[in-house]
Amino acid sequence: MTVSEFYPLPVSEIREKYYPNLANQTYLDHAGTTVYSSLTLDKIHEALSKTLLANPHSLSLASRDTASLVEETRYKILSIFHADPAEYDIVFSLNATHAIKIAASLIQDAAENSFNYYYNINCHTSLIGLRTLAAKYATFDDISSFEPVEDKDGKYPALNFVSWTGQSNFNGQKFPLGWCKEFRRRLDHCYTLYDASALSTSDPPDLSDANSSPDFVVMSFYKIFGMPDIGALILRRSTAKQLVEKRRYFGGGTIDALTIEEPFCRRSKQLHQSLEDGTIPIHAILELSVAIDSHYQIFGSFNSIRLHTDEIRKYAICKLKQLKYGNTGRRMLQIYDWPDAKHGPIIAFSLLSPAGDPIGYYGFGKLASARNISLRTGTLCNIGGIQKFLDRTNEDIRQDYEKGHKCGDILDIIDGKPTGVIRVSFGAMTMISEINTLVKFITEYLKESNLNIEEGNPGEKHELVVKSLTVYPIKSCPGYRIPEGRKWKLTKHGFEFDRSFVLLDLLTQKPLLLKNNPRMALLDCRVDPLKHMLYVRDKRGGNKLWVSTNIRRYKTKQMGDFIAISERKMVKFFSDVMNIGCTLAEFVTEKQMQNKTAFLLVNERSMRQVSKDDSLISRFRANIVVDSAHPYIEDKLSVLTDMDSGVVLKKRCKCDRCYMITVSDRGSRDSSLLVELSKERKQKGKVYFGVNIDVENVGYRYMRVGDRIVGEE
């Protein structure tokens, strides 16, 4: 199967010429945001260099020119949607969600907080959130399931508000613009909102018939053009005018006359001006104007984009449905779409094991990222799609939350059922080769690697030797390698000073993690157990800091679950290194400081099976590095006894490796180790290397390099 060419240039030439940022990338997350072109960037730079933008509320020539630019951009946007400026106006917003809030505030003020709200179950979270403003709310899946809500006395409220999406951001299913006619027929005083955010990426809705179009249409331009990061609310003049007259709040630039003390106020008669509180984002609007022109220059028309993305989706569906296990003939994945429904360029699916059981999305997303494949996993801000297609009840969602599951976490399978999906989405510049890369990766991912673990022999013993010991005083920062010959104290919870501190983000009040903040690798951390001092050095500039391990002797402040140093010098030191406001902190209580397991142990012999570069072993952030006669022997062992110190260790589980091992000692990203590891050590979607162990018996309460360990299967 091939894909036809619909653009002025072949898509391969378009990619090479206008999208250098996509070189060596497989980008399949256009529903999140599409990609901006180099042509857009060049033209924006030229326009900003030659154009003097001024506040359009002023009366200078530059201000007037800026106002003209803004109005021209409004016309360009309305033209995309075939919307007659005599029938529609457009209000700039931060994004589609902000546009939804503007529309909702108009409804709320007009109804005096008493209206019924109806929303489609396939909609984005942002539309669900409006139910908290309504007197009553109800959901519907299709127009046939739509039922008006009556009051107790059998009457309807003075105002009704209905919203639905043009295209599900879950799986791309499309929903008719024309539903609004039926809503108006069945409900009195009905206002309608249509979320065109996902749809407009490839197929902007046609608003040429104002009488059969929604009252409000929302969108985000980064989903259409890649930039700028603003959105808009398109509204029908005939209905919006009535609502604006009842609007309560007013901001700068929205009024024609106002007194300071008496409640006298006259709003602007320009509809958009009466709703755009404060100065509009004039620089972003210029960028938008340029982006629109560049998009047309590259792709010709949105109809061409729709035809291209439709072909890409058909090709992807065909290839994905062909994926089957050779030994059983069972399919490798389940695609979530609706029979006979129209779909935009989005596909949602779950991976399946040879036995037909669901495989979690987290490991897949992790390794896809390591291969430069961008896609989306999880609940996708579309809980309706999750409940509908994954057959999850309201009670399931509540119970999952009680078990610790939250949006965006790693709990992808609970009680044998998936909590989310994998989503791939396509855009104007998506290529067939990207689909082929995805299909190849899925095939490789579902092929189990040989973990090189033979059946164990209970009771059989193996000798190992401790090659290095490392403590990590600051969690996620480089560790301090304990010198040979030095005994290091341990307790039931691990080595003394290990992961005792964190770098706390002053804004979120959460610890920084290396996998999200690679600059943590730039800190050299050492600890003096006799002086109880922590030595921290910036590897780049040499700036250093001595800190007492008793941080409560300094000026501190409790921030959530942490006690954080608030002294300016120390805050500045850590913030300068990290380029983010942060400081050294510890948990409020000792119990909170305890790690899930006491130690991580890895084997040098096993590492040599993965890479010849011995220095890479530091990326695993192990407390104990051993050597043995055979690789991967640590996987078999259940109990390890230090014959020199009497310490007894018990294995809890194999260690599932995360993005942390992609961060080099210089703070740069390098996914090669994770990729190689996945070839050798992948099982049921997870990549294992090393073992997590706890202290069963503290013995003489120390360990040191060179200790002899006997491991028992």
TrEMBL record:
| Record-given protein name | MOSC domain-containing protein
Keywords assigned by UniProt, alphabetized: Molybdenum cofactor biosynthesis
Its domain of life?
Eukaryota
MOSC domain location is 557-712
Q: Which GO terms describe its molecular function?
A: molybdenum cofactor sulfurtransferase activity; molybdenum ion binding; pyridoxal phosphate binding
**GO:BP terms for this protein?**
Mo-molybdopterin cofactor biosynthetic process
InterPro entries cross-referenced by the UniProt entry:
Aminotrans_V_dom, MoCF_Sase_C, MOCOS_middle, PyrdxlP-dep_Trfase, PyrdxlP-dep_Trfase_major, PyrdxlP-dep_Trfase_small
Query: What Pfam families does this protein's entry cite?
Result: Aminotran_5, MOSC, MOSC_N
Q: Which PROSITE patterns match?
A: MOSC
Which PANTHER family does this entry report, sorted A to Z?
MOLYBDENUM COFACTOR SULFURASE, MOLYBDOPTERIN COFACTOR SULFURASE MOSC
